[in-house]
Amino acid sequence: MNSIIQNILVFAAVALAVAFLVRKFVWKKKKSKKSCSGDDGCGCH
Fold first, then answer.
1. For residues 22-41, b (16+ Cβ closer than 10 Å) or e, as one string?
2. Closest Cα to residue 32, out of 19, 21, 41?
3. Would you say the pTM of this structure is higher than 0.70?
4. Predicted local confidence at residue 31, as pLDDT
5. SS3 sequence, the chain?
6. For position 10, what pLDDT does the model report?
7. How many Å apart are CA 33 and CA 16, to the nearest integer?
8. CB within 8 Å of 36: residues ≥ 6 apart
9. Rounded CA separation 35/41 (Å)
10. Residue 43 CB: number of other CB atoms within 10 A?
11. How far from the centroid of its chain's Cα atoms is residue 3's Cα?
């Protein structure tokens, strides 16, 4: 019984880690067109 709970927790941790990596590196957010009122108006700091 204890090994079943341990396996579930391990798979949940791996799934969360994979979801985080996919969200961070695969689903890139599109950069907004707003400028940050800097000198060049590129919208980045």
1. eeeeeeeeeeeeeeeeeeee
2. 41
3. no
4. 61
5. CHHHHHHHHHHHHHHHHHHHHHHHHHCCCCCCCCCCCCCCCCCCC
6. 97
7. 32
8. 42, 43, 44, 45
9. 5
10. 13
11. 30
In order along its 45 residues, the chain shows pLDDT tens digits of: 799 999 999 999 999 999 999 999 887 766 656 555 656 656 565
Give the residue from 28, 21, 32 showing the smallest Cα distance to 42.
32
Residue showing tokens 């800097």: 38
| pLDDT confidence of residue 36 | 58
Q: How far apart are CA 29 and CA 36, in angstroms?
A: 17
Tokens coding 45? 């700091």
- Name the one residue in this structure whose structure tokens are 């599109």: 30
Query: Cα 22–23–27 angle (5° rounding)?
Result: 95
Task: Kindly state the tokens that stand for 12.
Answer: 């949940």
